[in-house]
C-alpha cells in the first residue's frame, strides 16, 4: 500500500472525542447551535440542542432545571428561553500533550493518505448553568434580607476605609505570582473566544474541506519525507534522545565508567573512587588507576581525601558530607555529621570492633545516621558488634612507615578535637581488646551449653541423692499403711531412663528456677529428679488426667506434638513448685490420653510426608457424651482408612451408618 503525506490541513486538523451520547441528542448539523474556540489554549466550547420531543426526555426534570437557572422571568439573559432545558454545553480538555505521533488516515483506491493531528480534544458536559442557578438563589436571598434591613441603610452609608500602600514586588515574588494557579487562570480567561460556524456532515463545504485530507500532489517533491533510505527512515522513527545526552554527568560520580574516569586528573580520579568505594587498600587503588601511575603521586593525592585506618584508606567525612549539606534522615548539618563519622573512624583506629549503642550515646545522632557511618566501613556481626570490613594491611604499614607516622599524628589531632567536643572519658579513649577477648570467650554454641548443663547436673547429683534418701526414710515412717493405685502413672525410678522427659526447654524463661522439670526451691520437696512420694504420685495423676480431659473436650482430635505443646503452655501458667513439674514422659502422657476415653487413630499418611513421628500420632476423643458421638466415631473410622476424603463420601457414609440424613450444617459441625 502506498502511503502519502497530506499537508493541506497541517496545524489545522483536530480530533474531537465526544462522550457517549444520550438518546435525545444526535451529533448532526441540526443539533449544533453554536461553537467557539480559544486557539492558544486549544479550548473548544460547543452548544448542542436536545430533542425535547424524544420519549426518553424527562420533561418535568427539564422544566425544573430551567426554573432553577432562569427563575420565573424570561429575558435576553435567560439561558433557556423556552422554559425548558433544551440544550447542553460541552467543554473540551486536552487528551494528550504531545500529539505529534498521531495522524488521521484516509484509505482510497489502494492509497493511504496521512494528515498529522494538531490536537486531540475530549468534550465533556459543562455544568455552568448550575453555578448560575446558585447565583440566582443567592441574589434572591440577598434581596429578601435587604427589604428587612432598610432602616439600617443610612447607618451603612458611612464606612471607614483603610488605605494600604503595596510594597515593591521583588523578582522572586513576581516569578511565584506568574507561576501561580490564579495567574494562569486569569490569563486563560483573558483570551477571547473565536466564534465558529458548524457545517453538517453532508454539507457542500464539508465535502470540499474533506478533500484536503488527500495528498494534493503525488510527485516526489510533495513527499520527500517519505523517500528515505532504510537507515534514515529508522532514525526518523526512533530519533536519539537529546535529553539523555544532556543529562549525562560530567564526572561519573554515580556510575563509574573507567574509560571516562581515566580522562580526568589523578586527584579527581582518586576522589571519585574513594567517594564511591569509601574503604580501599592501597594495592586495590593502584590497580584501578592503571599501570604506569606513579605511587608517590597517588600517596600525595590520597592523603587529601582519605585517612589511614588499620592500614587501609577510608574516605574523609568532609568529602562525603560537603559544607552546606545536611543528613537525609534527620536534617542534621554536615559539620555535625562529620564529627560523628570522625569519631567512628577514630574508634576503628583503636579496635576492630565498635558497638553501635556506644557511638549513638557519645555522638547523640539518630540511629539512621549512625548506621550509615558504620555501614561505610564495617560489617555487623551477631552478638559482637560492628567489625571493620577489611583486614589489617601489614604490607602497606611496613613499606610506608613515614605515611603511617604522619597519619598517626593526624589522628592524635582528631582525638584531641573529639575530646573537647564530646567530653570523652578514659573508658572511651582506651582500646577494649581485653573486653572483646573476654566477650568472645563467652560466646558458646548451643551444644556447649547443653554439655555444661549436663556437667552441672552430675555435680549436683550426689547432693540430691542424699536429700532423697533422707526424705525417703521420713516418708516410710509416715506412710507405711498408705496404698496407692499407680496403674495410670509410670514412675521413673532412676534419674536416667530409656524414656526421656518431655522437652520443656522453650519455657525455661517463663518458669524461673525450673531445671529439667524440677523446681529448685527448698520448700518444694514433693518431687526430686523423678522420684515421687506416695501422695505426690496420686496428685500428679489427678492433675494430668484433668488437663487431658479438659483439652480433648475442647479440641476432640490432637496429634502428640500438639498435645505436648499445649501441655508446655499449661506448665508455664502453673505456679512454681506445682506437682506437674516432677517430670512427665511422653509414655505417661500417651497412657493418660488412652485412659481418659480417647483412642489412637492410625491415619495412613503418605510415606513421603515430612511430618515428625509425634505429628503422625493422632489421638481422638471417642465418647464425649453428646448427640454426635456416633457420627464422630464413623468419621474417625473413615480417616483411619484414608488421610484425604471427599465431602460427599463422608456425607454418604454418615447417612448409611447412622440411618438419618444430616443437613449441611450438621455435617459441618461434625467435621469441625
TrEMBL record:
GO BP, sorted A to Z: tRNA transcription by RNA polymerase III
InterPro entries: RNA_pol_III_Rpc5 (IPR006886), RPC5_C (IPR045576)
Gene Ontology cellular component terms for the protein in this record: RNA polymerase III complex
Keyword Transcription part of the UniProt annotation: yes
Annotated region described as Disordered, given as residue ranges: 134-157
UniProt feature, compositional bias: Basic and acidic residues: 134-143
Coiled-coil annotated residue ranges, if any: none
Keyword Transcription assigned: yes
A Pfam entry, by short name: RPC5
Region forming the signal peptide: none
Domain DNA-directed RNA polymerase III subunit RPC5 C-terminal residues, every copy: 432-672
Keywords of this entry: DNA-directed RNA polymerase, Transcription
Protein name: DNA-directed RNA polymerase III subunit RPC5
Amino acid at each position: 500500500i502506498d502511503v502519502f503525506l497530506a499537508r493541506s490541513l497541517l496545524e489545522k486538523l483536530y480530533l474531537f472525542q465526544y462522550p457517549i451520547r444520550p438518546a435525545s441528542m444526535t451529533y448532526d448539523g441540526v443539533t449544533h447551535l453554536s461553537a467557539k474556540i480559544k486557539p492558544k489554549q486549544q479550548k473548544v466550547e460547543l452548544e448542542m440542542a436536545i430533542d425535547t420531543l424524544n420519549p426518553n426526555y424527562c420533561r418535568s426534570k427539564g422544566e425544573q432545571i430551567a426554573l432553577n437557572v432562569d427563575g420565573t422571568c424570561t429575558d435576553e439573559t435567560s439561558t433557556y428561553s423556552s422554559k425548558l432545558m433544551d440544550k447542553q454545553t460541552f467543554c473540551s480538555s486536552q487528551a494528550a500533550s504531545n500529539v505529534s505521533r498521531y495522524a488521521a488516515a484516509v484509505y482510497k483506491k489502494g492509497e493511504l493518505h496521512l494528515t498529522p493531528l494538531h490536537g486531540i480534544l475530549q468534550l465533556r458536559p459543562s455544568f455552568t448553568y448550575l453555578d448560575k442557578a446558585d447565583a440566582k438563589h443567592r441574589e434572591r436571598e440577598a434581596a429578601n434580607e435587604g427589604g428587612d434591613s432598610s432602616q439600617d441603610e443610612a447607618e451603612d452609608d458611612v464606612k471607614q476605609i483603610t488605605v494600604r500602600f503595596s510594597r515593591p514586588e521583588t523578582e522572586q515574588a513576581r516569578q511565584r505570582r506568574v507561576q501561580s494557579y490564579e495567574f494562569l487562570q486569569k490569563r486563560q480567561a483573558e483570551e477571547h473566544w473565536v466564534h465558529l460556524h458548524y457545517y453538517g456532515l453532508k454539507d457542500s463545504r464539508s465535502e470540499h474541506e474533506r478533500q484536503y485530507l488527500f495528498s494534493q500532489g503525488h510527485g516526489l517533491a510533495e513527499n520527500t519525507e517519505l523517500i528515505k533510505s532504510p537507515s534514515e527512515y529508522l532514525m526518523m522513527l526512533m530519533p536519539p534522545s537529546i535529553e539523555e545526552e544532556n543529562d549525562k554527568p560530567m564526572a561519573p560520580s554515580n556510575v563509574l565508567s573507567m574509560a571516562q574516569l581515566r580522562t580526568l586528573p589523578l586527584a579527581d580520579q582518586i576522589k571519585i573512587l574513594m567517594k564511591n568505594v569509601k574503604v580501599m587498600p592501597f594495592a586495590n587503588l593502584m590497580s584501578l588507576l592503571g599501570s604506569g601511575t606513579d605511587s608517590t603521586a597517588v600517596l600525595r593525592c590520597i592523603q587529601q581525601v582519605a585517612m589511614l585506618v588499620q592500614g587501609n584508606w577510608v574516605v574523609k567525612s568532609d568529602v562525603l558530607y560537603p559544607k552546606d549539606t545536611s543528613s537525609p534522615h534527620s536534617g542534621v548539618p554536615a559539620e555535625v555529621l562529620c564529627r560523628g563519622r570522625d569519631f567512628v573512624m577514630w574508634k576503628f583506629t583503636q579496635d576492630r570492633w565498635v558497638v553501635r549503642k556506644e557511638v549513638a550515646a557519645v555522638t547523640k545522632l539518630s540511629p539512621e545516621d549512625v548506621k550509615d557511618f558504620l555501614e561505610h566501613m564495617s560489617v555487623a556481626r551477631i552478638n559482637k558488634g560492628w567489625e571493620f570490613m577489611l583486614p589489617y594491611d601489614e604490607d602497606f604499614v611496613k613499606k610506608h612507615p613515614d605515611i603511617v607516622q604522619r597519619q598517626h599524628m593526624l589522628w592524635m589531632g582528631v582525638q584531641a578535637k573529639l575530646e573537647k567536643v564530646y567530653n570523652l572519658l578514659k573508658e572511651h579513649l582506651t582500646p577494649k581488646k581485653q573486653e572483646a577477648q573476654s566477650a568472645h570467650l563467652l560466646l558458646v554454641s548451643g551444644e556447649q551449653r547443653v554439655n555444661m548443663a549436663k556437667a552441672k547436673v552430675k555435680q549436683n547429683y550426689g547432693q540430691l541423692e542424699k536429700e532423697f534418701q533422707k526424705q525417703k526414710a521420713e516418708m516410710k515412717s509416715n506412710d507405711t499403711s498408705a496404698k496407692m493405685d499407680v496403674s495410670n502413672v509410670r514412675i521413673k525410678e532412676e534419674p536416667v531412663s530409656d524414656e526421656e522427659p518431655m522437652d520443656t526447654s522453650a519455657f525455661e524463661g517463663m518458669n524461673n528456677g525450673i531445671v529439667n522439670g524440677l523446681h529448685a526451691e527448698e520448700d518444694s520437696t514433693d518431687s526430686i529428679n523423678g522420684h515421687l512420694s506416695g501422695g505426690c504420685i496420686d496428685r500428679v495423676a489427678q492433675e494430668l488426667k484433668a488437663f487431658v480431659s479438659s483439652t480433648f473436650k475442647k479440641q476432640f482430635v490432637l496429634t502428640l506434638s500438639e498435645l505436648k505443646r499445649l501441655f508446655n503452655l499449661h506448665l508455664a501458667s502453673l505456679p512454681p513448685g506445682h506437682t506437674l513439674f516432677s517430670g512427665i514422659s511422653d509414655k505417661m502422657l500417651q497412657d493418660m490420653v488412652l485412659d481418659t476415653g480417647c483412642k489412637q487413630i492410625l491415619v495412613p499418611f503418605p510415606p513421603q510426608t515430612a511430618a515428625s513421628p509425634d505429628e503422625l500420632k493422632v489421638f481422638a476423643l471417642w465418647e464425649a457424651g453428646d448427640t454426635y458421638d456416633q457420627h464422630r466415631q464413623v468419621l474417625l473410622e473413615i480417616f483411619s482408612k484414608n488421610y484425604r476424603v471427599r465431602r460427599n463420601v463422608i456425607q454418604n457414609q454418615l447417612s448409611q451408618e447412622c440411618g438419618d440424613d444430616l443437613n449441611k450444617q450438621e455435617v459441618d459441625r461434625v467435621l469441625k
